Amino acid sequence: MDAETGQIVAALLTTNDVDDGFQVGPLLDQVTTSVASLTADGAYDQEGVAAAVTERHPEALIIVPPRSTAVPSETAETAPAQRDCHLQRITEHGRAAWQKASGYTI
Description:
Helix content is 35%, strand content 6%. The chain folds into two domains: 1-64, no CATH class; 67-106, no CATH class. It is mainly alpha-helical. The chain has four helices and two strands, in the order αβαβαα. The protein has helices at residues 24-30, 47-56, 82-93, 95-102; strands at 37-39, 61-63. The protein has a two-stranded parallel ribbon. Strand 1, helix 2 (47-56) and strand 2 (61-63) form a beta-alpha-beta unit.
């Protein structure tokens, strides 16, 4: 959805046996403009989702709450991914504070 106009810019219809996270790449392929951010629920906390967004829109923010069992990546200390930064903020300030600060919730 275009945040300024509210216009739907990409859509897919799937059955209930399809993992929504695997549809992020095909959805992004439909977008003809730059993507500033992707906001989705915790079901999208998948490596493939972040990879699909980063591949097509390297500057985009990825605002997906990490699962409660999430652990930092192997490069979190030297080259943290956005998800690593989310995990650190949640550890330091709590999930509710992360949600507000990240724009996940207002």
